[in-house]
Amino acid sequence: MTDPIVVAEGLRKSFGDTHALQGLDLSVPQGTVCGVLGPNGAGKTTAVRILATLSVPDTGHARIAGYDVVREAGQVRANIGLAGQYAAVDEKLSGRANLRMFGRLYHLPRRQAYRRADELLERFGLMDAADRPVLGYSGGMRRRLDLITCLILRPQVLFLDEPTTGLDPRSRGEIWDSVRELVADGTTVLLTTQYLDEADQLADDIAVIDHGRVIATGTPDELKAVIGDRLDVTLEDPAALPAAMGVLNALTGADPAATGAGRLSVALPGGRLRLADVVRELDHAGVAAADVTLRRPTLDEVFLRLTDRKETVR
Ligand SMILES: Nc1ncnc2c1ncn2[C@@H]1O[C@H](COP(=O)(O)OP(=O)(O)OP(=O)(O)O)[C@@H](O)[C@H]1O
Ligand SMILES: [Mg+2]
To answer: Is the pTM here over 0.85, yes or no?
Structure first.
């Protein structure tokens, strides 16, 4: 086992009365994707900015590739790339010109900067649009360009702050493919997201943060296992919902949630309940079920449970 390439211990950061980080710990093994998942205001961007040396913590410390983010910020910067929550490219310039400009800003010799720009445009599917002003790019293309400007110096660790927020499904898929390509090359990625499916798709490990601290960590499957399986029931007659809720509550000890007309869902904390028992008990109560299914929870349900918000009723 090698040491984790990103380590944060007890990071705290306040802005006046706002305690953005309240003792955040993170540990990311080299070559993996860590998904930092949290609702608005959870502290994701604050954490990324500290790890990327753009801000300093009040207390606590963090190391990237062994370098301290405060005392050795220069070495940290030489090893990382950061694509912020808001795009940094110049809209009036073409994609190619942006990449060349960043290459020069990073002190690459002109010829090398030009060659690297072309390599990246080719590799990440932007060559056809290379000479058009970024102004005319789609949101997805723009994000991809933003992402590849971070790759000019081949960083060991890449921070992506909400890389797909506001993108349509196809553009999100393209960004996901780009991230997978990077990881195949050995880059370690720490990405923040509010999208559960994004973390499910990309992350080896997930750290769920809320109110500035990590409230759960694990692989997507481990997190799903934490809250146990779910039981979904569809009733023949929606009017039987209250009776069905009573039966399910008695069987599981948990509060069922109505998930639609005549549909309810309940967590099975122990995970041990036979479908036959459910059907029989409903039957005894005079409730006819059209469908009873046992399933793994979605990451959404895990997240809602962990962040202690009411489960959505649709
Ligand atoms: N520079 C700042 N000055 C004052 N308050 C700040 C500053 N930066 C962050 N905050 C506050 O700290 C808290 C955490 O903010 P942060 O941007 O880290 O959240 P986030 O998880 O990235 O949220 P989002 O999903 O909306 O991007 C919020 O309450 C925010 O208002
Ligand atoms: Mg943010």
So the answer is: no
Of 11, 12, 15, which is best to mutate to test ligand 1, by the most ligand atoms within 8 angstroms of its C-beta?
15
The residue whose CA has the least distance to atom 31 of ligand 1 is 41
- Same CATH topology for 6-224 and 228-296? no
Residue 45 beta carbon below 6 angstroms from any ligand 1 atom: yes
Distance CA 306, CA 302 (A): 6
Q: Which residues of the chain have pLDDT under 70?
A: 1, 85-87, 269-272, 308-314
CA nearest ligand 1 atom 1, residue: 15
Alpha carbon distance, N-terminus to C-terminus of the chain: 45
Q: What is the mean pLDDT of the chain?
A: 90
Count CB-CB contacts under 10 A for residue 296: 14
Pseudo-torsion of CA 252, 258, 261, 264, nearest 10°? -30
Indicate the CATH number of 228-296 among 3.40.50.300, 3.40.50.2300, 3.30.70.100, 3.40.50.720: 3.30.70.100
Domain 6-224 falls under CATH 1.25.40.70: no
Q: How confident is the model over 136-195, as pLDDT tens digits?
A: 998 888 888 998 898 888 899 999 999 888 888 888 888 899 899 889 989 999 999 988
pLDDT digits (tens, 9 = 90+) for 16-35: 999 999 999 999 999 999 99
Nearest CA to ligand 1 atom 4: 15
Q: Answer yes or no: is the C-beta of 193 below 6 A from any ligand 1 atom.
A: no
Whether residue 271 has its Cβ less than 6 Å from ligand 1: no
CA distances from 4 to 7, 33, 47, 297 (A): 6, 12, 17, 30
CB-CB neighbours of 109 under 10 Å: 10
Q: What are phi and psi for residue 92, nearest 5 degrees?
A: -80, -20
**What's the rounded Cα separation, in Å, for the pair 108 and 102?**
9
Per-domain residue ranges of the chain: 6-224, 228-296
